[in-house]
Fold this protein.
Amino acid sequence: MAILKIARMGHPVLRGIAQPIADPTAPDVRRLVQDMVETLADAGGVGLAAPQVHVPLRLVIFFVPAQRAAEEVPLTVLINPVIEPLSDQMEEGGEGCLSLPGLVGVVPRFSAIRYSGFGLDGKPIEREAYGYHARVAQHECDHLDGILYPARIQDFSRFGYAEEMRRESATEDAG
Ligand code: NI
């Protein structure tokens, strides 16, 4: 296990389209996930995508802490994920990102989605997600298409350094 270096906004690996993983059960995929879990725990976020640790593969990990939503979501490993909105309804919410340390913004996301993909055991995963859970999944999967959350911000008056924004509003966890 190792703590990996996290790429920051501006690094080309964060702008590329990540490649599908041919075999989710491959030992090197498992090792990568172990390192990403350790890196996420060290950095203190709620999610991490493989391109953020300089690996351009379609793999994300995330969890929803109990204090964040009515339903806690345990650490989820999602390989080759696909997101499908369940309706056109959007909602705004605060986001941060480990690739933009210290910054937070208010980002519109689909309120309700279905996500699917594969776990490390190669078995399919399919879940419906709402609210914050849906937000985290959308944020992480965006990383696989080279999209960082500022690209989705509509109101830049609510984008800035968490230490400054905290003066007037709640801030968010980093993904
Ligand atoms: Ni992020």
Observations:
- Residues 64 and 71 are 8 Å apart (CA to CA).
